[in-house]
Hints:
mainly alpha; 204 residues; Ferritin-like; globular; binds fe (ii) ion; 8 helices; Ferritin
Amino acid sequence: xxxxxxxxxxxxxxxxxxTDPRWVDIAEMNIKDILVDHAYCEQKAASSCISLIINxxxxxxxxxxxxxxxxxxxxxxxxxIEHLNKRKFALGKPRKDEYVxxxxxxxxxxxxxxxxxxxxxxxxxxxxxxxxxxFKLLSQQIKDDELKKFYxxxxxxxxxxxxxxxxLARKIYDKEKVxxxxxxxxxxEAEIIKNLEIRGDRxx
Length: 204
Ligand SMILES: [Fe+2]
Ligand SMILES: [Fe+2]
């Protein structure tokens, strides 16, 4: 059996561009902003799964797989809030999420419901993969022991979600087509990461 580190590393290899190592240094210096942005990432993750459940209620597998994911993301949200409270940081307003806005541009409109659902599942899978990569960096490099452990746990959890989304897409739609489209998404995402400004107040 592969260890978690090994299997996560393998999965992360799918990302075509690793995060710029400067990001984690800047993030650590701006941990308050990172926690705030992270809280909203968890909220958006939960909300987006709820939307998928509602919009694709006719696909049984969607509710089956995504209801537990909603619960986990909401649990993550609660835990980030605890970390904020403990440090007496306020949640504050959500930030404009340029990464997600750019990903949304790539979602193909039209096609069958299976195709539409697949687009959203692949987009979510990518966000999970990138988040997982960033949690890994945080867990390896920041000095705060408590946060280190927290990010390590999240890295594992988000890797699980990544698998949930990809496998769900492969069940819903033609596996070969899903794999081809996944490659296109990966290439597009690498381009986004290359062009996004590195900032210490964003998870992405
Ligand atoms: Fe999460
Ligand atoms: Fe997740």
